[in-house]
Specification:
The chain is mainly beta. The protein contains 1 helix and 5 strands, in the order βββββα. The radius of gyration is 13 Å and the shape is globular. The longest helix has 5 residues. A 3-stranded antiparallel β-sheet has the order 1-2-5, with no helix packed on it. The protein has a two-stranded antiparallel sheet with strand order 3-4. Helix content is 7%, strand content 28%. The chain has a single domain, classed as Ribosomal Protein L9, domain 1.
Length: 71
């Protein structure tokens, strides 16, 4: 079985590589098969939430993309 990987893209979305199930606010599942990937919005401006539609580029979204040091 494959692992789920979440990659933070610089000043952009989160790239999720499956297998994983995303469940929307209405309880409808979106299945992501092993090895497939999808990008999730983290700027809040996408018109296709929870998925990224690249609006972050127009909005000038900036984020601190480095992981904090483990304590």
């Amino acid at each position: 079985m494959s692992d789920v990987t979440i990659q933070v893209r610089s000043n952009g979305p989160l790239k999720v590589t499956g297998p994983v199930t995303i469940i929307d606010a209405d309880g409808v599942p979106f299945e992501l098969p092993p090895g497939s990937s999808v990008v999730l919005c983290r700027c809040g401006y996408s018109k296709n939430k929870p998925f990224c539609d690249t609006t972050h580029k127009e909005a000038g979204f900036e984020a601190d993309d480095t992981a904090p040091l483990a304590s």
